[in-house]
């Protein structure tokens, strides 16, 4: 039943979409209000010129296609909207989604192909919500890499995917499946990223790069949703963390470290990771280390808020997971506010897949509710995110030479951040996927 609904919804969305992907290689956008570089002052009445998937000019006033030097270009009227760079979510799991009503063991019946087909709808919802790039930090590489390539080739609508393609965890750690009979766990164990000791963890990092990982995701501490009463403290040891970062950077890859308790956050920062995911118990020493190393916090506040909501309706959450939700989630607000006050680099990330795909903008509301300025929250999902993934040369702002990833919302998100839910226009790589 659930699969039928998903597929139906997907077809309804997909057919008009591809029709909208017009062959026209040039376009002119009239933007009433433009956040060209979120964080800098906004502009009024601007013309954005797009040719062959790139932004070739941003001009004052509303120019015609002829005046803009692109006769015959398609004209896109966003004079009543707030236009901004395509949004970027630095922590997603686009190959799955929690369902509080589903059988928690239904993963045992699914083939990779089933998961891939379900993912198509998740990708489409994410794109339609204005997210044109995601950093996917944990998925089976045999599923995420074909999805990434499918998006790149234009065969499926979805955000550009920066893929971790698996992750590194110690034996019994957060990244391993837990809570089943040993022989079942052995049968489903994906051992590539499971490592113990510095040498073995170097091997794991290199093996993931070999398989196609754009970045290396590690579980530096325990995690909330693994079915084990192993806590959320440091799990990868200092020498293992250092070995992973060294091996990854020697192959041009950054490391994203899932970490909740401060011991693991701080050890990962000392080892030189590029980002801390969640950072739920970040302390003053964490703030100092973030600022010393330039690492980013990816707060994923929505995951915490969503799990508190899910607890109200899901009667099947195992006791160790319930305990960890109750212990960790209340800490996330304090840690976020400490990082914000301390001037830490913050990049937007939702952990979508925990929460439903396409509701990513809720993270903006939570960030602002916890004290972040709306424009700083938008900056975290554009400028800051593009820097975290080393793509600030071609993503993250609306400027000449950049890739034409452009979205628009109705309303004014600076006075009401909930307007970020009202995405009415989505362009990625110069292709229009959604129009008012
Ligand atoms: Zn996650």
Architecture blueprint of SSEs:
Layout: H1 2-20, E1 26-34, E2 43-51, E3 54-60, E4 74-85, E5 87-92, H2 112-128, E6 131-136, H3 141-153, E7 160-163, H4 182-188, H5 198-211, E8 216-219, H6 238-250, E9 255-259, H7 262-271, E10 275-278, H8 284-293, E11 296-298, H9 301-311, H10 319-341, E12 345-346, H11 362-369, H12 374-380, H13 383-388, E13 406-410, E14 423-428, E15 431-434
Parallel strand pairs: 1-4, 5-6, 6-7, 8-9, 9-10, 10-11, 11-12
Antiparallel strand pairs: 1-2, 2-3, 4-13, 13-14, 14-15
Helix pairs in contact: 1-2, 2-3, 5-6, 6-7, 7-8, 9-10
The protein binds zinc ion.
Distinct ligand kinds = zinc ion
> What is the chain-wise order of helices and strands?
HEEEEEHEHEHHEHEHEHEHHEHHHEEE
Span from first to last CA?
32 Å
Tally of helical segments: 13
CATH superfamily of the largest domain: Metal-dependent hydrolases
Q: Give a quick account of the main beta sheet: strands, pairing sense, barrel closure.
A: 7 strands, mixed
Global structural class:
alpha/beta
Please estimate the helix content: 25-40%
Low-confidence stretches: 1-23
Q: Which radius of gyration do the C-alpha atoms yield? A: 21 Å
């Amino acid at each position: 039943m659930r699969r039928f609904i998903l597929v139906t919804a997907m077809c309804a969305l997909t057919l008009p979409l591809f029709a909208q992907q017009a062959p026209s290689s040039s376009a002119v956008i009239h933007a009433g209000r433009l956040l060209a570089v979120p964080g800098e002052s906004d502009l009024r009445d601007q013309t954005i010129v797009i040719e062959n998937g790139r932004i070739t000019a941003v001009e004052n006033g509303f120019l015609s296609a002829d005046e803009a030097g692109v006769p015959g270009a398609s004209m896109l009227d966003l004079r009543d909207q707030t236009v901004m760079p395509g949004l970027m979510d630095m922590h997603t799991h686009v190959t799955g989604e929690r369902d509080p009503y589903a059988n928690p063991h239904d993963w045992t019946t699914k083939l990779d192909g089933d998961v891939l087909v379900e993912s198509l709808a998740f990708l489409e919802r994410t794109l339609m919500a204005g997210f044109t790039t995601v950093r996917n930090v944990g998925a089976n590489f045999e599923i995420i890499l074909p999805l990434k390539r499918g998006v790149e080739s234009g065969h499926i609508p979805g955000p550009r995917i920066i893929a971790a393609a698996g992750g590194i965890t110690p034996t019994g750690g957060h990244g391993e499946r837990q809570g089943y009979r040993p022989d079942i766990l052995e049968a489903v164990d994906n051992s590539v990223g499971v490592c113990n000791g510095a040498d073995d963890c170097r091997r794991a990092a290199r093996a993931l790069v070999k398989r196609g990982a754009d970045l290396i995701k590690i579980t530096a501490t325990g995690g909330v949703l693994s079915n084990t009463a192993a806590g959320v403290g440091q799990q990868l040891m200092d020498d293992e963390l250092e070995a992973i970062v060294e091996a990854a950077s020697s192959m041009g890859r950054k490391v994203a470290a899932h970490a909740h308790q401060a011991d693991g956050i701080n050890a990962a920062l000392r080892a030189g990771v590029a980002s801390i995911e969640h950072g739920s118990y970040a302390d003053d020493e964490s703030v100092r280390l973030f600022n010393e190393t330039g690492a980013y916090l990816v707060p994923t506040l929505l995951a915490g808020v969503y799990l508190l909501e899910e607890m109200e309706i899901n009667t099947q959450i195992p006791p160790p997971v319930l305990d960890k939700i109750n212990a960790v989630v209340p800490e996330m607000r304090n840690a976020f506010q400490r990082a914000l006050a301390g001037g830490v680099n913050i990049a937007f990330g939702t952990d979508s897949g925990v929460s439903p795909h396409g509701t990513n903008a809720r993270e903006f509301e939570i960030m602002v509710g916890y004290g972040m300025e709306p424009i700083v929250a938008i900056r975290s999902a554009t400028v800051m995110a593009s820097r975290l993934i080393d793509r600030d040369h071609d993503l993250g702002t609306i400027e000449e030479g950049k890739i034409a990833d452009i979205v628009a919302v109705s309303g004014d998100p600076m006075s009401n951040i909930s307007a970020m839910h009202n995405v009415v226009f989505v362009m990625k790589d110069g292709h229009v996927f959604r129009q008012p």
